[in-house]
Specification:
The complex is a heterodimer of chains A (331) and B (313). Helix content of chain A is 41%, strand content 18%. Chain A is of the alpha/beta class and 331 residues long. The chains are: A alpha/beta (331), B alpha/beta (313).
């Protein structure tokens, strides 16, 4: 077991480190990559277990279908590349060979979102969560920091179904002090509050915590912060519990607001406890080049962005949260 | 499981059971002869016609072009045990051209993976025989296929897993590819990967029937000299007549003992065995009309009878 990180660290590094541990624990674990093993960190596994590591070159479709063949023959493959190629280029291979076949393949998709920065729109995957949520039988996991990503990778071995794990490029401040015991249901209350719920995933969780600080300091608002690390299947109880307490929520994700965390949360709320839910995320737009942090700022994927949305939501809260004008007796 | 509704289809006569020697298992010490394999190919074709006539859906001509190869595999070349489909040391068969599922289903049923009456449930709701092979629904299917181009890569994944389990010296992986598979770029990603990973227990069998949905391959997207392409990628590549049973068996058995991945390009005729369909465009993905099915069955049953007489004397 690795040491918990206290300094900022990238979630992709946790994937690489945990993969080596999995390799030591389980002989059936194999890893594949598509010429990005240094970036995705699967190279660590490759160095330690060369006979169980298959670098497929820049041929992601072949890699995903090979992972299918390996899993159908008793192995537990971890296939990694950038999220753009894992979910985009190889969608059909993942769909038929892995999800439809219900094979225990784990897709380690690194460099998700716009925070990969300089490479720009061609590499910034902002719709992978939507694609993978829509795919039957696929689980979608987006850890918040190194420590949680380490646990997510280790724990993925135990799961039966195929899994899409999204990791990021930049070093990210810690959310968890220790490597957590488990991801549990995938929704953690990382800060308690009563006025508004901030529901975040991945790189947006530490930003949501920062936003909660600001809201407390400047507005006297007590924000509750939820970290959703398992977006599919989403664990609805803690979400419902929080929004029924606060009555209003803001979601935050480094992803399109369509099909991602916002939609997952809104779906739960709309069916069981409708409250206003504002979303921070990417609109109908592609990313662009810049440093990772500059890209995040450009699209408002910041603590400030979350704070602003929260303030808008809070203005509306007394209006939309009050009893309906036409009560139950109205007919 | 819906029961076979063949009886409702009045123009179809019951399919005669060729009753040959047991293909595998106890009687496996005697190899199925070329004449017997040819007879099996006819029997499998008869089942395909019946299945498609009942299902009123599916790819008949694509199934018929692979029939001789599939018969050679299931009745002679593959080391498999229908009573124990998960036997770890078995050879693997992947129908990369998943749309030819009926021919694999016929072979699986005849060799004992499931009852023959299941065949008439093809493509029907609640039945296990899906339009394209499904590994979780049908015994004997190794991986689900149906999206062209993926099958050969799946074969390579199986080969690598067998190597890690030290089974690659005995267990061989055979895949049948279509013209469409050879048009998909992924097949050539796999073609590059196999020699790179030093895989020598895979055989890619190309059912090169030159016809696809929109026309001939030459018109739609010429796949050219597929054998030379595989050779250029570092494979041992041969080209044979895909309806010459002796050549098929020879090439398949030879491919087991090579130190390179093997490609066997089989020149075939789509719809082979049914004169009115053979090599003709316009049947892809279309079920036979009742008239065509009756005509096809009459022709195939006559051939089956002749083949039976030739063998039994």
């Amino acid at each position: 077991m690795a040491e918990a990180k206290t300094e900022p660290a990238a979630t992709r590094n946790a994937y690489g480190d945990a993969l080596v541990e999995l390799g030591e624990l389980h002989e059936e674990v194999v890893a594949l990559d598509a010429d990005l093993s240094v970036s995705t960190q699967s190279a660590k596994f490759g160095k330690r277990f060369p006979e169980r590591f298959f670098n497929c070159g820049a041929a992601e479709a072949n890699m995903m279908s090979m992972a299918c063949g390996l899993a159908a023959t008793g192995k537990i493959p971890y296939a990694s590349t950038f999220a753009i190629f894992a979910a985009g280029r190889a969608y059909d291979q993942v769909r038929l060979g892995i999800a439809h076949n219900e094979l225990p393949v784990r897709i380690g998709a690194s460099h998700g979102g716009v925070s990969l920065g300089e490479d720009g729109a061609s590499h910034q995957m902002i719709e992978d969560i939507a694609l993978m949520r829509a795919m039957p039988r696929m689980q979608v996991v987006v850890p918040a920091d190194y420590n949680q990503a380490y646990r997510a990778t280790l724990e993925s071995f135990e799961k039966e179904a195929p899994m899409y794990l999204r990791f990021g490029r930049p070093a990210t401040p810690k959310v968890y002090e220790e490597i957590p015991e488990t991801l549990g249901g995938g929704v953690d209350v990382v800060r308690e509050g009563k006025d508004i719920t901030l529901i975040a995933t991945g790189h947006m969780v530490w930003r949501a915590l920062e936003a909660a600080e600001t809201l407390e300091g400047e507005d006297g608002v007590e924000a509750e912060v939820l970290n959703v690390s398992i977006i599919k299947p989403i664990h609805s109880e803690p979400v419902l519990e929080s929004i029924s307490k606060t009555g209003v929520a803001v979601t935050a994700e480094e992803h399109r607001v369509v099909g991602g965390l916002a939609d997952a949360v809104r779906q739960v709320a709309a069916e069981q406890h409708p409250v206003p839910i504002y979303a921070v995320g990417m609109g109908d737009e592609f990313g662009l080049s810049g440093t990772g942090e500059a890209c995040m700022e450009h699209f408002g994927l910041t603590a400030r962005g979350i704070t602003d949305r929260a303030r808008e939501a809070l203005v509306l809260k007394p209006i939309v949260s009050r009893a309906p004008l036409f009560g139950p007796d109205w007919a | 499981m819906p029961s076979a509704n063949l009886a409702r289809v009045t123009h179809l006569r019951p399919v005669p059971d060729p009753k040959p020697s047991q293909p595998n298992g106890e009687a496996a010490d005697r190899q199925t002869s070329v004449a017997e394999l040819e007879r099996w190919a006819t029997a499998l074709r008869i089942d395909c016609v019946s299945m498609l006539a009942v299902a009123k859906s599916g790819h008949l001509d694509s199934s018929l072009s692979s029939a001789d190869i599939v018969a050679a595999l299931y009745y002679r070349v593959l080391r498999h045990d229908p009573q124990n489909p998960d036997w770890p040391e078995r050879d693997r068969f992947v129908l990369c051209k998943g749309h030819a599922a009926p021919i694999q289903y016929a072979a699986l049923a005849h060799t004992g993976y499931f009852p023959r009456e299941d065949l008439m449930g093809l493509r029907q709701i609640g039945a296990h025989l899906q339009g394209h092979p499904d590994m979780h629904r049908t015994p004997g299917v190794e991986v689900s296929t149906g999206s062209l181009g993926q099958g050969l890569s799946m074969c390579l994944g199986i080969c690598l897993a067998l190597r890690l389990d030290s089974l690659d010296d005995t267990a061989h992986v055979f895949g049948i590819l279509s013209d469409g598979d050879c048009q998909e770029g992924q097949t050539w990603e796999a073609a590059a990967a196999a020699p790179h990973f030093g895989i020598d227990n895979v055989t890619a069998i190309v059912d090169y029937n030159h016809l696809q949905t929109d026309g001939t391959t030459e018109q739609v997207m010429d796949t050219g000299d597929v054998r030379a392409k595989f050779e250029a990628f570092g494979w041992d590549a041969v080209e044979i007549d895909g309806h010459d049973m002796e050549a098929i068996v020879g090439a398949l058995e030879r491919s087991r003992n090579l130190e390179r991945p093997a490609a066997i390009v089989c020149q075939t005729k789509k719809g082979k065995g049914v004169s009115s369909m053979e090599g003709r465009f316009g049947f892809h993905g279309k079920p036979p009309s009742p008239e065509l099915a009756a005509e096809a069955l009459a022709e195939l049953e006559t051939r089956l009878e002749q083949q039976r007489e030739a063998i039994d004397g």
